[in-house]
Amino acid sequence: MILRLVKMKFKPEESANFIAFFDTIKDTIEAMPGIVSVKLYQDENDPNIFFTHSMWLNTSSLDEYRTSDFFKVIWPKTKLMFNDKPMAWSLNLK
Questions:
Q1: CATH of the domain at 49
Q2: Number of domains, the chain
Q3: In the chain, which ranges are continuous DSSP H helix?
Q4: Using one digit for the tens of pLDDT, what is the confidence trace for 9-46?
Q5: Least crowded by CB within 10 Å, which of 43, 61, 76, 77?
Q6: Environment class of residue 44 by beta-carbon count within 10 Å: exposed (0-12), middle (13-18) or buried (19+)?
Q7: Cα–Cα distance measured from residue 14 to residue 20, given in angstroms and rounded to the nearest whole number
């Protein structure tokens, strides 16, 4: 099992837009092969910082998602809203 955490900081005027955008793509992400779940968290102290928390069956499932046509459409749209470079971690559950 792979836990994927992605930290993203958005332009203040884009935070609400990102929440709305995520709501439109969440079900499609959850329908991807090999995903267990995906959640969105907003930082308690900085409302422009968000984390996605996704669980994957294995690394190859995550890699297939990251190279999918769907990801190639949504990631560029998301990046346009950033205020800082995103950070990501892939973690093995023990």
A1: 3.30.70.100
A2: 1
A3: 15-30, 59-66, 69-79
A4: 999 999 999 999 999 999 999 999 999 999 999 999 99
A5: 76
A6: exposed
A7: 10
